[in-house]
Specification:
Distance between the termini: 57 Å
Helix content: 40-55%
Bound molecules: guanosine-5'-diphosphate, magnesium ion
Structural class: alpha/beta
Amino acid sequence: METRVSALAKKVRSRDRVGLAQALSLAESLRWEDLPQRVALLQALGSVPPTAYRIGFTGPPGAGKSTLIDALGAYLLERFPEAHLAILTVDPSSWRSGGSLLADQTRMRRLAAHPRAFLRTFASGGHLGGLHPRLYEALTFCEAANFTWIFIESVGTGQSEIELRYACDFFLYVALPHGGDEVQGLKRGLMEALDGVALNKADTLSPTDLNRLLFQFETALHFLRGGEPFVLPVSALTGEGLALLWEKLEARRPTPAQQATLRQEQTRYWLLRYWQEALERWLDQTPQGQLRSQLLHHLQQGKPFWALLQDIAQAFGLYPPAPTS
Ligand SMILES: Nc1nc2c(ncn2[C@@H]2O[C@H](COP(=O)(O)OP(=O)(O)O)[C@@H](O)[C@H]2O)c(=O)[nH]1
Ligand SMILES: [Mg+2]
């Protein structure tokens, strides 16, 4: 195993497509049986100083995230002939064979065919509402492959929206201008987490509508965040605003020291997720873990709520409560 792993590590470091795809499949696996292999690979890659600029793109389905990534990515790869770009799309709402993952691939036509771009889609991993539980490892592998930028696309649903923040250096919200009250639809938690807003499909808006939307976003963000996150109209279709968007993203790129601190916080987050996952797995094998299905069964049979509460507390040795002195 040792030599196979070090051979794989070498391939990853040299950005070999097959090797990288193999490493990412390993990252995608949710089987604990595969953990030793992942651990060995991470170990073989050693500690990788963060060099890639990770940008997370979130927003409602149809906002144009994939199209924007394709346009921005193609623009960047042309401008920087030495650069390499990795794109991970993580779609919590669909499965590998599902339609929207394929849609992402077809929306990224330019990047899909580009020799310096690497595209990979991640299934949901069955994790309800959250990002793929192994995304962190996948990103570590991409970082070891020395990509200049890593773009992460995630559909904005529930928890994953905010969670993306723990995967990237910059958290960009791609807004879809319907002409309604877009800002109202944004959850407060999301407003607090995002670093910038790209108002996409600016080509479909009249100047009046565009100004109204910009004003709405700027006011809301100013109120919440002192106006720190930017709001920028762009069009992934016409390319309008892309150069300026990149200028702004580049200006917000964290320094290596800031990036190291950020990664430390992010590692803490993913570590606790692992802990939670292991805990649940462990719990399922204990009598207390099995109690869960018994409780639901008893509830269905009409056992009163208070009696079920008693059962829970008793199972964990909490009933009657120990007297506090
Ligand atoms: N008019 C216009 N259409 C766009 C723009 N960006 C994306 N679209 C279209 O919006 C639809 C959804 O785009 P897609 O990138 O798949 O959205 P995603 O679900 O956020 O990834 C597609 O039909 C795109 O062609 C844009 O800037 N202007
Ligand atoms: Mg998409």
